[in-house]
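Board notes, transcribed. Complex of a protein with nickel (II) ion.
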Amino acid sequence: MALLTILRYPDPRLHTVAQPVAAVDDRIRQLVDDMLETMYAAEGVGLAATQVDVHERVIVMDTSETRDKPLVLINPEIVARSEDLSVNEEGCLSVPAIYDKVRRHARVAVRALGRDGQVFEREAAGLTAVCIQHEMDHLLGKVFVEYLSPFKRDRIKSRLLKRSREEKSPA
Ligand code: NI
């Protein structure tokens, strides 16, 4: 297992569109395990492969309070979405310490392959539904701040760029 480096917005690599996984083999299982370790270490609820600069359709999540119910989605597809929407405060490991409200479908059903390569379907509501939609956006190269106004987005961008400059230059 290994901790992976999480790309930070506005890194242009976050806008790469991920390709489908051709086969759930040892390489993909290793990626899944490393992504889970990275997500738990960063205390996140979800992580898409795009965020660790691997551009294949792999997502890991854990929205349980006990942090012991990992969900792995390989080649995920939304197969049903509720008409009703809900607005939730979102954050992202690639946009540290920034939270804002995003409107999404209140419930979704997703079909994906698991870590074992078997196809499964899952219905989700609440935080899990939010997380699935948020992570699937990452695979399309979309970061949640793109739902915000251009003004807010620019402010976030300059704040994060300033912060990474400060981290790079010795005090
Ligand atoms: Ni995110």
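The CA atoms of residues 21 and 105 lie 26 Å apart. The first strand starts at residue 46 and ends at 48.
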